[in-house]
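Quick one, probably user error.
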């Protein structure tokens, strides 16, 4: 049973690639990239403590679909094909309220591994 409150509103913004969650007077916009790299799936978290896989190159990932899973979770289908994580209400609440800490930790792990959010993509400017 969930300990976290349910969001009073959930909105998917495909153009800005964000998921908006409202809890009372608190509103959060979580990027698809943030949700993807913090997926609760075994593919990302691993099958044991310390077995997680650092997700790289997810800067441009988007959300294709949100699928309710019973009364306890959302399945988020990403446009890179990832769809195996069930985001429970507890998980979403935690990701929303601890965004800054989790994002900074993720960026530090990327830097330490010599990886990037872009995944080797090269930006080509128009001039």
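Nope, works fine. Designed sequence:
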């Amino acid at each position: 049973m969930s300990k976290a409150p349910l969001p009073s509103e959930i909105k998917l913004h495909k153009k800005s690639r964000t998921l908006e969650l409202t809890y009372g007077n608190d509103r959060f916009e979580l990027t698809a990239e943030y949700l993807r790299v913090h997926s609760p799936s075994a593919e990302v978290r691993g099958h044991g403590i310390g077995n997680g896989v650092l997700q790289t190159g997810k800067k441009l990932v988007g959300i294709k679909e949100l699928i309710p899973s019973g009364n306890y979770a959302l399945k988020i289908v990403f446009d890179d094909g990832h769809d195996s994580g069930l985001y429970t209400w507890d998980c979403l609440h935690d990701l929303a309220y601890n965004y800054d800490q989790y994002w900074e930790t993720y960026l530090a792990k990327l830097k330490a591994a010599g990886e990037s959010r872009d995944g080797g993509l090269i930006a080509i400017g128009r001039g």
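The mean pLDDT is 89.
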